């Protein structure tokens, strides 16, 4: 899923889809950007790329709360389960973006919100009603097959399907929607705005469900008519 806004080329991915790997590589090589922005924060980047060991569970619970910690564990388990169906490891498209960027000597920007803050926000905001509904839906997923709820999980969803799913998330899990979507869209849009103003072309690799929110926020910013400088930002 590709979308262009100003000098940003968005690659909307599914974190467990093999198709996303091909799309990421093809777009970076074709567009030849002078910056690749990725939906990762520093902690996840280090864990993913350098296989940094995670801290103790007790320390994590103290930092982000038991509810946020539990949500993170269940989310990681669910991604692994789905990846067995799609035969693609979770976050493989982000690794691919990093690999291609390094090979082509293109700087990388990490634009996502700190995962600890996101999980802490879940601990603070999730309601009992949402928790009960989440557990019920989670148990259904235990028996999930490749075709689920009318779409193929091995493919990147269409824009219509993404819109439908995000609306459902907003209705049934408003607190989770706020923390997982709205707050992260705001954070990533701010980073991309700064990067895009300082670079001639940016390829942004983000989950497909974030593109609408990010672009809508970017449309509200002031954009200079002057040509971007091509300045490279350091990580």
Overview of this protein structure:
The strands form two sheets. The chain has a five-stranded mixed beta sheet, with helices on both faces. A two-stranded antiparallel sheet has the order 5-6. It is an alpha/beta fold and about 240 residues long. The two termini are about 25 Å apart. The chain is globular and about 50 Å long. The chain has ten helices and seven strands. It has one domain (about 1-220).
The number of helical runs is: 10
Count of distinct strands: 7
Structural class: alpha/beta
Low-confidence stretches: 228-235
Please state how the strands of the largest beta sheet are arranged side by side: 1-2-7-3-4
Silhouette: globular
- The helix content, as a percent range, equals 55-70%
Supply Rg: 18 Å
This entry's quaternary arrangement is single chain
Overall mean pLDDT stands at: 80
Spatial gap, N to C terminus: 27 Å
Major sheet: size, sense and barrel closure?
5 strands, mixed
The amount of beta strand, in percent, is 5-15%
Total individual domains: 1
Spell the H/E element sequence.
Answer: EEHEHHHHEHHEEHHEH
């Amino acid at each position: 899923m590709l979308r262009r806004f100003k000098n940003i080329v968005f690659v909307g991915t599914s974190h467990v889809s093999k198709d996303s790997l091909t799309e990421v590589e093809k777009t970076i090589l074709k567009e030849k950007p002078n910056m690749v922005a990725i939906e990762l924060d520093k902690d996840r980047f280090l864990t993913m790329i350098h296989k940094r060991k995670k801290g103790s569970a007790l320390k994590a619970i103290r930092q982000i709360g038991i509810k946020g910690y539990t949500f993170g564990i269940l989310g990681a388990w669910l991604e692994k389960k789905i990846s067995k169906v799609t035969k693609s490891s979770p976050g493989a498209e982000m690794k691919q973006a990093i690999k291609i960027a390094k090979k082509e000597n293109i700087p990388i920007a990490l634009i996502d919100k700190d995962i600890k803050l996101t999980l802490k926000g879940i601990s603070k905001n999730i309601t009992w009603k949402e928790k009960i509904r989440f557990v019920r839906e989670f148990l259904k997923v235990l028996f999930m097959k490749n075709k689920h709820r009318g779409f193929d999980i091995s493919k990147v969803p269409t824009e219509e399907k993404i819109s439908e799913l995000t609306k459902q998330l907003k209705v049934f899990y408003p607190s989770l929607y706020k923390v997982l979507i709205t707050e992260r869209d705001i954070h990533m849009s701010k980073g991309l705005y700064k990067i895009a103003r300082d670079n001639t072309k940016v390829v942004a690799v983000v989950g497909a469900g974030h593109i609408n929110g990010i672009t809508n926020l970017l449309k509200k910013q002031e954009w200079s008519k002057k040509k971007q400088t091509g300045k490279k930002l350091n990580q």
